[in-house]
Amino acid sequence: MALWNLGSINVDVIYSVPHIPAPGETLASTSRSVLLGGKGANMSVAAARAGCAVHHIGAVGRDGGWTVERLAKYGVQTDLIRETESDTAQAIIAVSKDGENSIILHPGANADIPLDLIEAAVAQATAGDWFVTQNETNMQPEALARAKAKKLDVAYAAAPFSARAVIEVLPFLDLLILNEVEAAQLQQALGRAPSELDIRDVVVTLGKDGADWFGPNGVQRIPAIKVDPVDSTGAGDTFTGYLLAGLAQGQGMEAALATASAAGALMVTRFGTADVIPTMAEVAEFILRNR
Prior knowledge:
Layout: E1 2-6, E2 10-16, E3 31-37, H1 39-49, E4 53-60, H2 65-73, E5 77-83, E6 89-95, E7 101-106, H3 115-124, E8 130-134, H4 140-149, E9 153-157, H5 163-169, E10 175-179, H6 180-190, E11 201-205, E12 211-215, E13 218-222, H7 235-248, H8 253-267, H9 280-289
Helix pairs in contact: 1-7, 3-4, 7-8, 8-9
């Protein structure tokens, strides 16, 4: 089965800094990198590197041709990426010595994805495929409604977090993925805990503590491999991409979560975003080293 990803494509401009700047503070960076990024692009690359067939649905500006070429180089199918009049989206990312980050995002072409492109993607998909999106593009409810009507399995990665955005797509979801802060914010907005949502599976990532899976048999903790973090940027996207790749390839949730957790842990030991997401072979070796 395949993964269809309505996802953002960003140019990530990453600065290494001594610490995350405080309001009014000016810092000199120690390095600067320009890389492929965006939550959607990161997830597509992660899923492709996990061995899954991935179709990316998105948009770039005239300045973004290199990002599409990079996605294709990493094994992502790019025929559903359209060029628009808007600039390609850009993220300005500050990464501190302890691996924490701060991000400013300009949405650009990610907000200009046309409905006909989504409909073309869903028309090509097969019942049993997975469809995922995140909160960095337009057309999220429209896309997930069509995916559900086609009998695709539907997932949503609730970041950047908006309770309103999650509420709009809840009726279509088979899988919801949040981090611990997002889960608390959603519970405050809905008055319901993750275990009380009318969704088949909810996964709450907990950083160094792993992840909680709320499924048909209650809650189960998926432990994380302990590492010394270098850069947390893209780790959650790597987790999600690997999780969906495993599910699309027929793995059970517990097995897919274990591999995804290892992939996310390995990712935080690397500096960068889509360009440094680990391959399945690297993740497998990492798991063996840490048994």
